[in-house]
Fold this sequence. Notes:
Layout: E1 5-11, H1 18-26, E2 29-35, H2 40-66, E3 81-85, H3 101-110, E4 115-119, E5 125-127, E6 133-136, E7 152-155, E8 168-170, H4 178-187, E9 199-204, H5 210-216, E10 227-229, H6 243-251, E11 253-258, H7 267-275, E12 278-281, E13 301-302, H8 306-315, H9 318-335, H10 338-352
Helix pairs in contact: 2-10, 7-9, 9-10
Amino acid sequence: REGTTVLEFMKAAEPDGSHIHLAGAAGIRHVVSVWVQEPVALQRQHALLEVGKALQQFGFAELLEVSRRPLGPSGSSSSPLLTLPKGRALSGLHAHSGDTFREMARLWADRGYCRIQESEFTGHCWWGEIGEILLYDRPTLRWFDDSLTYQMALFGNCVPPDPYRLRQSVWSFWPRSPRAIETVVAKHANLLTYEERTIPSLFLGKIENGVQLAARKTHDWSTAVSLFSMPVDSTGAPYPYTQAEYLEKLCAARFGLCLRGFGPKCNREIEYFACGVVPIVLPDVDMTNYLVAPKAGVHYLVAKTPEDVRTLVAETTAETWTAMSAAGRAWWQSYASAEGLFRLTWARIEQCRPYFTVGIPPAFPT
């Protein structure tokens, strides 16, 4: 049908352009790949690579659009199945509070996007049954075992252990307490303006482990922003602000400082985007390993020192801030909200499914 992409293979020694004209008349995109004389095994491998290149160039955006069709009702047999750990599977190294991606997965199920089953035989999350698509939601590779068997693995926080290894892919990321984020976004569907926001800049968090301590004590970041809270506490004590108070502070702030978390990403960046805060990130905060990565100067700013942060806050115009705030909210909606992350995950899996045995394309186009 019109708008379809057709990939045609032809021998280099026998080129034929007749199908190109037919495709043009039918409104079909025609992509040609040429076979050279070589062993059949190499021809097959090169053909797969050419298909991957065609998908990289033409197919990803179309697949994302297809994945935005209406979602099925809760419990529908057409809804994807997710497997989450429970009981004894959540002991020892695999203990988990469940308030980040796993809360997101349950939110998906509540909205009817997917079905959930629980298992005591895995400490990981899976799209499908155990052994199908690994949804690796831990902050570092400490929980990853090379002996894990899977058809494909998506990595949310840390970089895949070998980006050139078959069936591994970057993913997106999520906030802490996705339900609370969805609630506050619904409450503040219309973002407060630059003038209405009473907090010029902020950082609200705490240091809970040695990795965060090393990353967050390189400078006195309390001098960088107008509202700062970062107690050192590894006991799991409550934050100075409740979750609701914290999110209301974000909705009243213009800029937010981003310091590295336990992993290379932090939930804070996603929370900022959702609340319309313009993030100011340090170079060691990972803003690139996303399927669709936010862009410096469009969605966030970069600083190295407290002085850099103060300068960006002072010199960024209200007009520029307004555009970046809206762009950040839009990026969150498309790729990190409950609906956006589900559709992105679904699209990536379906895009790569034909290649589970031969490797997958590296990323979505930007």
